[in-house]
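Section: Multi-chain targets

For targets with more than one molecule, the full set of components is provided together so that the structure can be written out for the assembly as a whole rather than chain by chain. Components appear in the order listed by the source. The example entry contains two components.
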Amino acid sequence: MIPASLSPSSRPPAALHIPAGPLDIALAAPPGSLRDVIATSLALYDVAWTLGATKTVTLECGIDDDPVGTPVEGRYLECAQMNVDPTPGGLRATTTHGATLNGTFSDGAEHWHMVVPGHMVAERWWPEIEDLLSLVLTTGWRRAGWVPLHAAALTDGHRGAIVCAASGGGKTTFMMAMVRSGWRSLGDDKLLLRSESSQPVVAALKLMLNVDPAVQAWFPEVGDLRGLPEYSAWTPKRRVALGSLWPNATELTMRPTTIVALQRRPGEGTFRIEPMDAGETIATLLRQTVIPRDPAEARRIAAELAACARTALGVRVEVGDDAYADPGAIGRVAQALR
Amino acid sequence: MAGERLDGGAARGYALRSDVVATILDHGALLLDLDSKFFYLLNPSGWAVTQLFENGASVEHAIERARAWGRDADVSDVREMVERLVAERLIEPAEAIANESGEAPVAWQPVTLERQAEPLQRVIVSAFDPSIPLAE
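Its structure, encoded as tokens over all components, is:
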């Protein structure tokens, strides 16, 4: 069994400092697989932050063979394997297999305390640890004034497109086609958004892509990715650095001018493009971010998305089966973006 | 969604539920119900009427204000919209009501309250990913 690491006699481990966008995560965890998996997860946020000062968020982690904790109800957030409740000083989360996370917040700081049952570490059951980390990060980013978006982003230097689709909806492939035609990317699934001087700004968080090896059929330049390790049992995708595929195709910030709702359209054909009205455009953005049940937070997130939708053109892009087989087809999409 | 009707209760007061969040758009407003996860789009006239309920109003007061803003236009649709606000549980009975004068829309139009067909996901993948929690 793995010994408890939070006993009063144990010396606190030295903190690792890992950047994640505008956050500096000070991670204190016992050496071993738990600390390694947390550090690896945080290392995905590989963008050097250039938009002002960063904020330190402390995260203390420990392992307990006999954790005691009451599962919370999900009054703040209800995820597949994690529920989150508000507390007088912050938030408390519990996971299906018994890990807990308590956050206490002050004006400019957040302190988190994670306790992971020994059996989870022994079984190397990491998805719930990643869920807890996503709570630490999204809370920190929101409290720093940003709205996390689950979307891809592209710019040609003048125009900026936020590309929205559900997981597995084709954001990465679309992004790769646009990059090949000369656009630059801020990433394929994790972005930050906020308004500066009434103008929305999008910031990159990670430039590591999640690529399905099957795209080699359309993008031979990526080579055979099957030799890379799978990072999840749920998807065949591999992690590949955007810059390793297309050097000079990365960008760190942009002003969004178009919101793209990407939809698959089974059947022959390439792309079908049609404009969206303002309601559809904000609805598209609302579906790409997590909105907690806290009304004040929800109000601020909705206001940021509304500000973005107000200044951007909304277009729906339906992707047919032949969309990427014709390298020229993506050019017609690019022309339709404002 | 089954909800309370206005039958016989038009003089009663109602207020926007505390977990219904309003965001002003260029042309109207968006209401997000944090409980049901449905969201709604209101045109400017619909938002002007709905805004009266932020601090509580009676149905008759809302209709009276709409009549004033609409300069004798047919405002029968206002009662229908308030009935929908009640039926969708966006407003709820309230004891203390302000019956404020409210802010007139630039130009009165028949009120619209459009519910989006699909709600936001109630249960999400993670704190970052709002997608349907299914394996890809």
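Chain B has a mean pLDDT of 88.
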